[in-house]
Amino acid sequence: MSATGWAGLVPRARDVREGDGPPFVWGSGTALVVEPAPGLREVARWLRGQSVLPFREEGERALDDGGAPDDEGAPGNTVELRLDAGLGPEAYRLEVTADRALIEGGDAAGVFRGLQTLRQALPPAAFRRAGPRCEWRIAPCRVQDAPRFAWRGLMLDVARHFMPKDGVLRLLDLLAVHKLNVFHLHLTDDQGWRMEIRRYPRLTEVGGSRSRTRVGHRASPLWDERPHGGHYTQDDLREIVAYAAERHITVVPEIELPGHSQAAIAAYPQLGNTDVVDTSALEVWTDWGVSPQLLAPTDDVLRFYEHVLEEVLDVFPSPFIHIGGDETPKEQWRASAVAQERIAREGLRDEDALQAWMVRHFDRWLAERGRRMVGWDEILEGGTLGGDGLTPGAVVSSWRGYEGGIAAAEAGHDVVMCPEHEVYLDRRQAPGEDEPVPLGRVASLQDVYEVRPVPARLAESGHAGRVLGLQANMWTECAESSQRVDYQVFPRLAAVAEVAWAGPGHSYDEFAERLAAAHLPRLDACGVEYRPLSGPRPW
Ligand code: TNX
C-alpha cells in the first residue's frame, strides 16, 4: 500500500480502518450538514473558506437532534459535523461511506482536527489555496483519533527578526495542518520590542527597530547596514489571536524579563540599572547573544511591567502568559547599590534569589488575574520550588535538556518540554558546509523525530502526567524572512507534530517514507519552502 491517502496521514491517527465499497465523491452536489452545537458554526465557516472544497450552493443545513438531514429529494451526499460528548478534548471519530463523511468531535476542536484528517485523505491539490472546483474521491474508512498531549506547540521569535502579520497568519494555517494547538509568540528581546503598548509608546517607537544587524559569526566583522524593524499593533495581535482561535490554536505571548530586555531599556532608560550604567544613550541591540543589560529590581520597574502585562492580558485571552526568565547575566545587579539594597530589604541570599523574587512577583500577579505564568527553566533557580515558591499553576518550559522539566514536575508543576538539542529549529539540519544556517549543533529530521518528551524518570516516578506536551522553538537570529523560517521549520515541524499528537511511530524510516510520499507534496501545494530531504535548497 502506498503511503498516501489514509495511509499517508501526518501526524498518524490512532486507529485507521479502510473499508470496501464505493468511494465518497466530494463534488458540487455535496451538502454541508452541521449540528447546532457550540463552536461548530465557526468550524463550518472555516471549511467553507477552503475554496478548493466544493459544496452545494444553498448552504449548510442544521442537523436537528440526531434527525436525518432534510433532503427534499435533492441528490448528493453530505459532509456532517457533530459533537459526541463521549469523546475527550480534541478527539474525533471519522466515518466515510459513499453517502456521507461524518466527523464527530469531543468538542469543536476535535471536529476541526478531524477535518484536517479528512483533508489529508484528499490529493495534495486539496491543500492549494484555490483551484479548479473538481470532484474529490475518498475511499471508505473509519478513523478514531485523539491527541497524546494537550500542548503541541511552536514558538516563533519575532523579536530578532520581525515577521509581518500575513506571514504569521500563513504559519498558523500550517500549524493547523499539523494539528498543533499552541503558538508561542516571543514578542520582546534585546534586539526588538514587537507589541504596541499604548501606555508606553516608545517601546515600539524606539524599541521596535534597530540601526543595523550583525550577520555571520562573532569573529566576522560583517554587518547588514540596513535598519530592521516592525511591530504589531494591538489590532494586529487581536486579528492573529482570532485567526488562531478559528483554528483552535492558543496564542501564548511572551514578554521577557528581567534579562533579554535591552530594547525596552533603550526605549525607557529608567528601566535599567542606572546607578551602574548610563542607559540614556543605549540603543536597541544590534549584536547576537545575551546582552548584559537587565531590568532594575525597583518598585517603579515592577509597576511598569504590570502596566505592560495589563495590556497583554487585554489582547491575549490565553490562560498561559510567558515571562521569559532565561539567560540573565547578573553582573549589573552585583554592582548596583539599588539591587543590593533590595536583596537586603527582602532578606534574599543573592542575585539568583533576587531574580526568583521578581519571577514570583509576576507569577502571583498573573495568578491573581486568573492566568498561569510560564517561564524558561532558569526560573527554577534561586529558590522558586517548594515552600514560599511559585504558585501551583506556574509552568516551566524546559529548554536546557530535560532536567529543569523533571525537577519542576517532581515539585508539582506542569512542564512543556522543548529540549534544545532535539527541537530547536534554528539549528542546522545536516553537517554539510552548504547548509545555510551555521548555528549550533545539528538537529536532523531524525533527531527531531526521536525526541522523547516524557523522560523515563518521570514515567517511573509517576509524574509523567505533569508533561503538558512538546514544543519546537524557532529563534530567528539567522532567519530574516518567511522563506528562511520555512526552511528551518519544515519538514522538521511535521516530526514534532507526529510525536506530540500520535507518539513515536514504528521507525524513523517509516515516517520519512510517509513524509516523502504523502506530506511533502501537501507542503508543496501550500507553497512551503521546506528543506528537501535530499539536501539544501540552492539559495
Ligand atoms: C537560547 S532558549 C535562547 C535564545 C536564543 C537561542 C539560540 C532560550 C530561552 N534562550 O535567546 O535565541 O538560544 O538558539
The figure for the number of domains is: 2
CATH homologous superfamily of the largest domain, by name? Glycosidases
Look at the structure and give the mean pLDDT: 94
Number of strands: 23
**Major sheet characteristics:** 8 strands, parallel, barrel
Radius of gyration: 25 Å
Distance between the termini: 36 Å
User: Which CATH architecture of the largest domain?
Assistant: Alpha-Beta Barrel
Helix content: 25-40%
Q: What class would the helix/strand composition place it in?
A: alpha/beta
Describe the protein in words.
This protein is an alpha/beta fold. The chain has 2 domains: 5-145, 2-Layer Sandwich (Chitobiase, domain 2); 151-526, Glycosidases (TIM Barrel), CATH 3.20.20. It is 31% helix and 18% strand. The chain is built from 17 helices and 23 strands. The chain has helices spanning 40-48, 108-120, 165-177, 202-205, 234-246, 262-267, 299-315, 331-335, 337-345, 351-368, 403-410, 420-423, 445-449, 456-460, 482-489, 492-501, 508-526; strands at residues 15-18, 24-26, 31-34, 61-62, 78-83, 92-96, 100-105, 136-138, 141-145, 151-157, 182-186, 188-189, 192-193, 209-210, 213-214, 223-224, 228-229, 250-257, 320-324, 372-376, 395-398, 414-417, 467-474. The chain has an 8-stranded parallel β-barrel, surrounded by 6 helices. The longest helix is centred in the C-terminal third of the chain and has 19 residues, at 508-526. The chain is globular and about 80 Å long. Mean pLDDT is 94; it is low at 65-74. Its EC number is 3.2.1.52. Pfam families: Glyco_hydro_20, Glyco_hydro_20b. It comes from Streptomyces smyrnaeus. InterPro entries: Beta_hexosaminidase_sua/sub, GH, Glyco_hydro_20_cat, Hex-like_dom2, HEX_bac_N. Residues 149-503 form the Glycoside hydrolase family 20 catalytic domain.
